[in-house]
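#struct-pred
JK: can someone run the complex with NAP? inputs below
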Amino acid sequence: MGGTFDPIHYGHLVTAEGARSDFGLDTVVFVPAARPPHKEPRRILAAEHRLTMTTLAVDTNPYFSVSAMEVERRGPSYTIDTVREMQLCYPGREIYFITGADAVLEILTWKNVGELMEMCYFIAATRPGYQLENLQVKLASLPPGRLARIHSLVVPALAISSTDIRQRVREGRPIKYLLPEVVEDHIHREGLYRT
Ligand code: NAP
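RT: done, structure tokens with the ligand placed:
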């Protein structure tokens, strides 16, 4: 489960549980992106805080865990490096990379995309009403075999978004019930997202 998780919220958690159940996954490992290759580092919260919040959020689900591999790795957080590392951690197992559909839309620009698509399956999570045809159109140049490795998952809880949560905190509006209470407490205690 890859994402910036800035911050993690119930949309992410419902997505992970839905993917686990629908695709028969043994476990879901959340991997906060330390330095997403396409984002300005100044604009995202320090990786340590995002890692802490993710760890707090998954604590009550025995199928979920968190990996600091992208935080510990130097340089940009390329998914190909993460999937390679996952293959070493789970030899012989099939790997599904779960993330938001908008991120998957850009997959043709990702590092070593051809090799990456041979190594794992993808689950592109969307909110209801999302134009899934966008994926088909944007990724039409992929060979059919590769396109078939991208699955979609419609998750109503993805109406919740990290951008909205950050804005709410900045404006002093409630974020209760959008994310786990332990994460909310961490945000308020550490004074995150106020500016
Ligand atoms: P993003 O652009 O911040 O997010 C795009 C959309 O997807 C947002 O609506 C976001 O909602 C949603 N989203 C993100 N992660 C999600 C998840 N795990 N489950 C459900 N929805 C999710 O995307 P990002 O977080 O930076 O990147 C997503 C993943 O793709 C990361 O693991 C990143 O490292 C990887 N990636 C790799 C490359 C590369 O290898 N070159 C390039 C780009 C991205 P919220 O804002 O509410 O989360």
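RT: quick notes.
The longest strand covers residues 121-126.
Strands lie at 2-3, 28-32, 64-66, 96-100, 121-126, 150-154.
JK: thanks, will look after standup
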